[in-house]
Amino acid sequence: MTTKREGSFMILVTGAAGFIGFHLAKKLLERGEHVVGLDSLNDYYDVSLKEARLAALMLQPNFVFEKVDLADKVNLEAVFQRHTIHKVVNLAAQAGVRYSIDNPDVYVSSNVVGFVNLIECCRHHHVEHLVYASTSSAYGANTKQPFDESQNVDHPMALYAATKRANELIAHSYASLFHLPCTGLRFFTVYGPWGRPDMALFKFTKAILAGQPIDVYNHGKMIRDFTFVADIVEGIVRALENPAQPNVEWNSDRPDPATSYAPYRIYNIGNNQPVPLMDYIGALEKALGKKAEYHFMDMQAGDVPSTFADVSRLEKDLGYKPQVTVQDGINQFVDWYIDYYENK
To answer: Which of these, 1, 41, 173, 20, lies nearest to 89 by C-alpha position?
Structure first.
């Protein structure tokens, strides 16, 4: 049963049973916040993992769960009617670059229609700040690195990236028209405990422990700005506490894409230390105490060979820079994975 808590400062976290959403909701609850967690619990990957995350959150007295799909406009509006929501963090989305190639309609429904439904609710219910997940994939065909938020990002290489870029543009229009503070966060290759089974670290770990070969794309010649989930969550919390403000120095003759005359901001959240894929796998082998068997493959459609985040704006405006090393982060993931799967 859900109730409207008048006077309580409530934060809506969409995608609360997901990887990042779970960690964010957990951190907010530990800080004493009241959290409404929303998730559709779709079957894109193992629902039991989502249910396990959700069960951990349900132990907290300040947590309320709503099973709703963002594309369901009527029931989403009902959530806002039931609760007094002050701030929103949108982490609900159909994820995955490769999956978008064969399932475009799912991405449009969740990432575009769902986002519009949510931002409309934020507008009509006078939400103080909308923070939403974007992606490093927005940089698309850009090759100048590190990627910084002032770059043009109009050349996405996959529909997933295009839908996330659409979120950024929609958010700007609402910030401009309705003065709704909106902050978009471009995440760079997130990993850590409770991660998604479709992500590389999860698949590598499962295969290595089973004595099976791992698929290594682009013959291992990949570089990623791997970012530990706790660093992502800290960045989200910092952003949430600092609602986007208009940039009084914004110049329409030389527009800065990351800021605006409206209350709008875009930030990268990345480790700022790109790591070759083979070194990442080496750190996993060290944590597992077991060598991998490699199955080298060509680059996949929609993929890019390298990512590298400039986080100077994040550091300057929000006083934070990710700091967990890849080896430490992978060690924490392996500890969780063995505890969760091997010791059941």
So the answer is: 20
